[in-house]
Structures are given as structure tokens and as C-alpha cells.
Amino acid sequence: MKIVMLGTGYVGLVSGACFSDFGFDVTCLDKDKLKIKNLKNGVMPIFEPGLEDLVKKNFLSGRLKFSTDQRAHVKNADAVFIAVGTPTRRGDGHADLTYVYDAAKEIASYLNGYTVIVTKSTVPVGTSQKIKEIIKKNTNAEFDVVSNPEFLREGSAIEDFMRPNRVVVGHENKKSKTVLASIYKPLFLFETPILYTDLKSAELIKYASNAFLAVKISFINQMADLCEQLDTDINDIAKGMGLDKRIGNKFLHPGPGYGGSCFPKDTLALVETSKQNDVNLSIVETVVRYNRDRKKSLARKIINLMGGDVTNKKISVLGLSFKPGTDDMRESPSLDLIPELLKKKAKITAFDPVAKNEAKKFLKKIKYAESIHECIKGSDCVVLLTEWSEFRSLSPEFLSGFMEGKYIFDFRNVLDPNVFKKSKFKLYQIGREKI
């Protein structure tokens, strides 16, 4: 089985490396010559735990290859996965499918013999049918189009691929279904559920899943806001809810709002799809607005609790990526919160163990520290924004050795409030009593 992966971004590179680890002959294609050169030399374009070792292992075995030559590899492929970017389109919030459609048109002329074209990128309902139409206009070769959305969480993507909760395959006939069944046969060992459905349903499952989780995150964040007014503890509320098996305990941890490459983009695209089809999806629309506003509102909370004026105050931000385990800055809360503090003339120093280089592309007017110690030295206030493991053990004794001020804003609720009760520090956590 020869597999070609179009795109060496997050989805394409992780999927390609994992498929090669299954034992398949995989070639990851990209137009970026420098990226391909770097991958051949073991330089990863993204940070993902375990990915560098997995790529190196399979590249050295010969199962995983990298190339810019579509013609040479597409013509011999049994399956071609489209894993190019689908960024949010400016103006209307819909997914920009330019790269997807360009990829379909380009590979069409290289097809030789029966090939399954697999949509791995997250795309709106109807995209796979459009891909089929584009390819049909540009080739006489026999092919089928399949929708196989990814469900990878950044920071645990390899585990998610190797031991997924489910695999979704949208197909139109038995022939293409058989090919995908062969590709995912290694997962039979783990009794992974594979849902075979039609193309449109497969596309919508991905959007529906992410939108539901976004709703769940926003719900617990709003409950946290209510807890603060009622002097109740959101951690207890979340635990009590999560013990109900109908609800479950996942995605019930309050925070500064969701970010990353999927939830913001997919919720916007789903809302746009509902509008185009004249369907009321007001729940998701409200979540999109609330999540956007929430990130900025936390900056206002910092300012208010520090007396209403942060002019020339040194505020230390711990964590810049949208979640631990990744350097992804897309839609990170830091991109909204920090600019709001800068507008009020605060002086920002930040530390992130992985995302500093990515953050520099977006946040220009702040200082970047090389360690926690350097970041919090002389600080008036510490803001814990990403729950990296090394931030979880911060204590009053440690902080007292470096900080000038007394304000700690733990927007991930990872610190133990009991150890701060008899200290000089004022600890603020989301949905909990202020200490």
C-alpha cells in the first residue's frame, strides 16, 4: 500500500508519520522546499511530543519519505490524503478552501490507475463532492473520494492517532471502503470503532464534535463566573457534574477560553454553514461571541483587582501557547489578554518553555524570559495562562524570592489555594474564592 500525504503541516506530518509506523510506504509532499529539506534533516516544523523520534525512526527505515515532486509520487499512490490548510476566510468566517481545491486540481493530472482521494483536512459539508467534481474534470483515471476527518489533540496527537476513540470514514462505494479498511486494519488490534457513513455526514461529524466541546467549555466558564458571584467553588461544581455519566468529566475545567487551530475555526465555519442553509444555530453563535469576549475580559479583571491602574507595572505571564504540549499560538488567550494589558501601559515579561519563537511572530512589544526565575524577577503580578507542568508547583516561598508585588492570577486553577492562605499573596483563580 502506497500512501501520499499532501501537506506537511500538523495533520499531514503526524498522520504520515503514524501511517508509516503502521508499516505503509508513505510520502509526505509539500511545495515548501525548505520545509522538505529540513524534514529530511530531522528538523521539525512544529513541536509535538514524540513526533521527532517517530519521524526519524520511519525515515531511516525508508517507510517515510519527503518530497516536492507530486508527479513522481501521486501516479503510484493507492491513496492520496489531502491534508492542506483550511484557514478561516476573512470577511465571512467560512473555511478558506483554496488550498484544498488547488490540491485536487493539481493531483488530478497525475493520477494513474485506481486511486482513493481522502479528505483529511477539516472541510465544510459538500467539499468532498466538490473535490470529486474538480478531479473528474481534469482526469480520465478511475478514482473515488473519501472523507476521513482527523480528531487529533495537539500535545497528544500521536497517541490519538495510534489509539483513537473512533475513526470516521465517509464513502460512496464498497471499493473505496475496502481501501480505507485496509489502511486502518492495524487499529483492529485495539478494537477501534470505525464508523462508515456517507460523505456529508463524515464532514459534519467533525464540526459537530468540536462545536459541542466548545459549548461545553464555554458553559463551565460561565458557571465559573456565576460561582464567583455566589462564593461557591467551580471545582466542586464541575466534579459534581462530571460524576454524572451522561455528562462526563472531560472539558469541564474552567479557563481563559478555548483556542488552537480547531475550535475557533470550526465553530465559525459551522455557524456560516448554518446561515447558508437557513438553520438557527444560535447556541454555537453565542459561544463564538462569548469565547472571544472572555479572553479580553480577563485582562480587565487583572486591572480592576490591581486597583484599576497597571501603568508601568511589571506583569509576568507564564505560558503563551493555547495549551501545554504544543507551540501553537493560534487563537491563544495570550494574543488577546497581553495586548489589552499593553494598552493600559503595563510592562509585560513572558516565559513559555516551548512557544517563545512562535509567540515572537505575534507579540512584539513584550520581553521574553529564558526561565521562570527571570520572568518573575521584580514582578508586581504573575499571570499563569498555560498549565505547563513546571508551573504547577509554584509556592509562596519560591515566588517571594523573586517578586516585588503580591498578585497571582491563576487562570488555569492549577495552584493549591491552601498553601497561599497565610502568605502575603493575593491569589485569584477562576470561579473560586479569592485568597
What does this structure look like?
The chain is of the alpha/beta class. The protein contains 16 helices and 14 strands. It has helices at about 10-20, 35-40, 50-60, 70-75, 100-110, 125-135, 155-160, 175-185, 200-230, 235-240, 265-275, 280-305, 335-345, 355-360, 370-375, 395-400, and strands at about 1-5, 25-30, 65, 80, 115-120, 145, 165-170, 195, 315-320, 345-350, 365-370, 380-385, 405-410, 425-430. A 6-stranded parallel beta sheet has the order 3-2-1-4-5-6, with helices on both faces. It has a 6-stranded parallel beta sheet with strand order 11-10-9-12-13-14. Helix 11 (about 265-275) runs antiparallel to helix 12 (about 280-305) and helix 12 packs across helix 13 (about 335-345).
Q: Please outline the major beta sheet.
A: 6 strands, parallel
User: By helix and strand content, what is the structural category?
Assistant: alpha/beta
The first-to-last residue Cα distance is 60 Å
H and E string: EHEHHEHEHEHEHEHEHHHHEHEHEHEHEE
Q: Please state the CA-atom Rg, rounded to the nearest Å.
A: 24 Å
Per DSSP, the total helix count is 16
Rounded average pLDDT? 94
Instruction: Tell me the number of strands.
Output: 14
Q: How are the strands of the largest sheet arranged? A: 3-2-1-4-5-6
Helix content: 40-55%
* Poorly predicted parts: none
What proportion strand?
5-15%
Seen as an oligomer or otherwise, the chain set is single chain
Shape: elongated
Observed structural traits:
435 residues, alpha/beta, six-stranded parallel beta sheet, 16 helices
